[in-house]
């Protein structure tokens, strides 16, 4: 049975390779169906292979979504963390292969049908994968013709992930989420952060834009009114993650005022699952530097940590 399964998938890889050749050379930056099929096949047979998979669908079951990170942790319905077993992660890749996902178009639907045509249900779904340096997404837009294979595949992937929702971890607020990150109950990839600092109005030097998303840290110079420079990307080191998390907890982030004082223009946004905190700091005309002294002092300490990460 195993040999037959692999032989069938190899035949599909060959078919996609021929189909891609018939359509001409792939466009720059695109992923060929054959290359993706080979990557999916290899990862499905190699437990622990890292990949990122995002599925979002609004259908008869309502809106369901998950984002699976390397390692097995996933965001379920944007509110909870679930943990998939290695076997389940491999099964997801096999479903992508069996359903022909590598050969799907980038998008389907989106145009209204003639008035006399039977109107399909207004379903929208998307599937995106990032694996072995290859990326592909396929989207079913609401309205217009519905592509059943994409809708069925999305439903199957969501049903598989939903099996693990019974043991989901769901923080009640941002403070609880930070505590659970610190305790290891939530995966580090769930911490999202955006930190922008621009010099004061009399300083023409560029500012800094720092982002943390999915366990990746990006830094880039930023000048207001200009396109940002290309970011430098790297995995967020465990030591940096632990230090940042400790700083966020020490300053009592959830309790900080939304507006604080700063000589520079500062925007800070921190999110874990559905819980978000935004702080804006600049020379507010009705806010003095010592108006909220305890909170201001805590925020200034956090700025030191953020600037070190941004350097």
Task: Name some characteristics of this structure.
elongated, alpha+beta, disordered N terminus, Mago nashi protein, 7 helices
Task: Summarize the structure in words.
The chain has 311 residues and is α+β, with helices and mostly antiparallel strands. It has 2 domains: 2-167, Mago nashi protein; 174-310, 2-Layer Sandwich (Mago nashi protein). The chain has helices spanning 2-22, 33-44, 86-98, 148-162, 174-182, 238-250, 293-310; strands at 51-59, 62-68, 73-76, 80-83, 107-109, 124-131, 134-141, 191-198, 207-213, 216-222, 232-235, 259-261, 265-272, 275-282. The strands form 2 sheets. It has a 7-stranded mixed β-sheet, with helices on one face. Strands 11-10-9-8-13-14-12 form a 7-stranded mixed β-sheet, with helices on one face. A hairpin with a 2-residue loop joins strand 9 and strand 10 (216-222). The longest helix has 21 residues, at 2-22. It is elongated.
């Amino acid at each position: 049975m195993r040999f037959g399964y692999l032989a069938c998938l190899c035949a599909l890889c060959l078919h996609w390779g021929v189909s891609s050749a018939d359509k001409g050379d792939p466009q720059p930056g695109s992923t060929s169906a054959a290359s993706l099929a080979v990557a999916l096949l290899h990862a499905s047979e190699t437990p622990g292979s890292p990949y990122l998979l995002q599925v979002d669908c609004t259908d008869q079951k309502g809106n369901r979504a998950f984002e699976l990170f390397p390692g097995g942790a996933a965001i379920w319905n944007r509110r909870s963390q679930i943990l998939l077993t290695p076997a389940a992660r491999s099964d997801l890749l096999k479903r992508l292969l069996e359903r022909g996902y590598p050969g799907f178009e980038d998008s389907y639907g989106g145009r209204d049908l003639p008035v006399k045509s039977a109107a399909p249900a207004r379903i929208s779904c998307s599937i995106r994968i990032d694996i072995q340096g290859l990326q592909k997404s396929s989207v079913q837009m609401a309205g217009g013709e519905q592509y059943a294979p994409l809708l069925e595949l999305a439903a199957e992937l969501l049903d598989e992930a939903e099996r693990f929702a019974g043991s989901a971890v769901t923080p009640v607020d941002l403070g609880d989420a930070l505590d659970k990150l610190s305790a290891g109950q939530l995966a580090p990839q769930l911490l999202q952060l955006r930190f922008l600092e621009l010099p004061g109005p009399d300083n023409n030097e560029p500012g800094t834009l720092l982002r943390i998303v999915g366990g990746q840290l990006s830094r880039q110079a930023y000048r207001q009114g200009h396109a940002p420079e290309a970011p430098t990307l790297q995995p967020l080191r465990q030591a940096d993650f632990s230090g940042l998390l400790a700083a966020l907890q020490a300053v009592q982030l959830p309790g900080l005022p939304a507006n604080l004082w700063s000589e520079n223009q500062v925007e800070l946004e921190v999110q874990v699952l559905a819980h978000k905190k935004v702080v804006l700091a600049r020379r507010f005309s009705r806010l003095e530097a010592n108006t909220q002294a305890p909170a201001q002092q805590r925020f200034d300490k956090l700025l030191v940590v953020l600037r070190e990460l941004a350097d």
